[in-house]
Amino acid sequence: MARDLDIDRWDLECEFNNADHRTDLNGAERLVVRRGQPFTISLVLRSGSFQPGLSSLDCIAETGPQPSEQYGTRASFGLSASIDASRWSAAVSSPPGATVALSLCAAPDAPIGRYTLTLGRSGRVDFILLFNPWCTGDAVYMDDQQSLAEYVLSQDGIIYRGSYKHPVPTPWNFGQFESGILDICLRILDMNPKCLKNPGKDCSGRRNPIYVSRVLSAMVNCNGDKGVVEGKWADSYDGGVSPLFWRGCVEILRNWDTQACQPVRYGQCWVFAAVACSVSRALGIPCRVVTNYLSAHDNNSDLVIERFINEKGEAVESREMIWNYHCWVESWMTRPDLSSDFNGWQASDPTPQEKSEGAYCCGPVPVRAIKQGELTFKYDAPFVFAEVNADVVTTMRKPDGSTSRVTSATVVGQKISTKSVGSDDREDITHLYKYPEGSEEEREAFQKADHQNKLLQQQQNQGLDLAIKVTSDMRKGCDFDVFAVVTNNTQSNRKCRLVFGSCAVSYNGILGENCGFKDLLNVELSPGAERRVPLRLNFSKYGDRLTEDNLIRLAALLMDYATREATLAVRNIVLDNPEIKVRIIGEPKKNRKLAAEISLHNPLPQPLENCCFSIEGANLTAGSVISERLGSSVGPGQDAKVKIYFTPTHSGLRKLLVDFDSDKLCHVKGYRNVIIGK
């Protein structure tokens, strides 16, 4: 007759188990394990000893407020001869005796979250269960160790901003293993409307990374729920801070948690994407932030962006926009609801743009489905398809009310970018989303998407060609020229009108004030001739009109008097901020105080007031931001310099993120990779 083990006390062996399950950066104060992988706890028996075949132990694992066998949030199991990693199981892995090593394993499809484990009649232990991308039976399994190190374990990274001609790397601290962050991530799941309405069903859904990713897509923004970040796309950020203020997710997540789940103000697309990435990695879902340049926002699902201009080439207000860039996330998982061809990267967009099933969320949709034009697949495939592959139609509205079609070479979905695995280089992943522009496969994919409008066939202009050229050195604070280049590819003399203008623009396409304008009524070109028309951009004019994005929109409109045809060229340029230089003083070692000597050169013809440097970094600054304010102004051509001290808490390759702020030069970003010795 089997006899229950009489347990006196136990040791969860947190340090060993957490290291074995790659959760040790969460600390060793509690047990954090991954599903589908055994872990071992030590039991000291009150009386008797373990006898194989004679001793028994009833185990019950429960999660959520209403544990249920039906929902899969409660599992009952006893001792087996050995661990079965395909289900909840337990086995003794030590010789008979008064001290027992008990191995346990959660099913690879068990719901993630907080668990209580009951051991017979004498023991209850608590632990946290996460997704396990190292387990072949888990839906998030990824078989490349370098990719796992990047997409799950890396606490810092790079997010791309700027323009498609000039991608600007922005360092970011995801900080998913910093103190308290995992608890906050679980609280985000608990605060989602589906959980508040039916917690038992919601906790059951947490076995599925598709469900969890969709919940996160909705909960990262605060539209319609108690989400984390409030978005704002305006010049004034009263009641909060500029989205460019943030250097990482730790401060954002902690603020949301300590402020009783009130939204953190403010964020824009890269902030939403970064927070979603941080939470996904914390929960064990491989995740990365991607940037799509010239990203379309199609709000009527016809896969066409209709753009209107006037006779000066100025954009006329339209609900449909082409964002200079837009960020979202990709999460790695299988899609058992679809065919196996669509396993792998799934796109989710936490920026609140359009509602999906009543909530402001988007995805996850297989990236491969977007490339193939499979728009009937869950979730929100048409919206993501349009972001990278919509056609653009430009129409000129004339003063008399008439309209005419304008030839334009704008192509959405350019240089889709993410940080490379294991390096700070940019990886271009455009080929994962679309076939080469204009290719037969790309057009076939577009037709499969059931596009009803006549497709625009982009052919080389055999008449007058128009392009915008810029110099390589366009720095904030400098005066420089940009050029409209007109080429006559015909066999006859041509006379035309050229309108060349510039204005400040935000990254999501909202136009600001004029920064320079030129209207040439009689541009004459002989056959084969080229005319290069400069437009001077002076800091005295553009300096006060730039948004924080440092972007200027250039637009050239060419009207051929002979044919009455109009051609439009548009290009966004990003002005470079000065470089932040960082020098580490001292030998970088774990728990040894270091100094960062930081400097920045003032490129503006004006003094900088209220100058402040701030640093943060995963396992470098203890999850905090350390700031140092300068006591005096920094004159034109002078250097701002500070020395900031910090103490690393873990060894390995780390990123020290630096931010400079002042009254005229705001949110300048920089970083330095530091290898911390043991």
Amount of beta strand: 35-45%
Mean pLDDT score, rounded?
92
> What's the name of the CATH homologous superfamily of the largest domain?
Transglutaminase-like
Proportion of helical residues:
10-25%
Overall structural domain count: 4
What is the tally of beta strands?
A: 39
* CATH topology group of the largest domain: Coagulation Factor XIII, Chain A, domain 2
Task: Figure out the total of helices.
Answer: 13
Q: Using only CA atoms, what is the Rg?
A: 29 Å
Shape: globular
Taking the sheet with the most strands, its summary is:
8 strands, mixed
CATH class of the largest domain: Alpha Beta
Report, as a whole number of angstroms, the end-to-end distance.
53 Å
- Secondary-structure content class: alpha+beta
Enumerate the strands of the largest sheet in spatial order, edge to edge or round the barrel.
Answer: 18-17-22-23-32-31-28-29
Stretches with pLDDT under 50, minimum 5 residues: 450-461
Overall CATH architecture of the largest domain: Alpha-Beta Complex
Tags for this model:
39 strands; Immunoglobulin-like; eight-stranded mixed beta sheet; Coagulation Factor XIII, Chain A, domain 2; alpha+beta; 38% strand; 13 helices; 4 domains; six-stranded antiparallel beta sheet; 678 residues
In short:
This protein is of the alpha+beta class.
Describe this structure in words.
This protein has 678 residues and is of the alpha+beta class. The chain has 4 domains: 3-130, Immunoglobulin-like; 145-448, Coagulation Factor XIII, Chain A, domain 2 (Alpha-Beta Complex), CATH 3.90.260; 464-574, Immunoglobulin-like; 580-676, Immunoglobulin-like, CATH 2.60.40.10. Helix content is 15%, strand content 38%. It has 13 helices and 39 strands. An 8-stranded mixed beta sheet has the order 18-17-22-23-32-31-28-29, with no helix packed on it. It has a 6-stranded antiparallel beta sheet with strand order 21-20-19-16-24-25, with helices on both faces. Helix 3 crosses helix 7. The longest helix has 15 residues, at 269-283. It is globular and about 105 Å long. Residues 450-461 have low confidence and may be disordered.
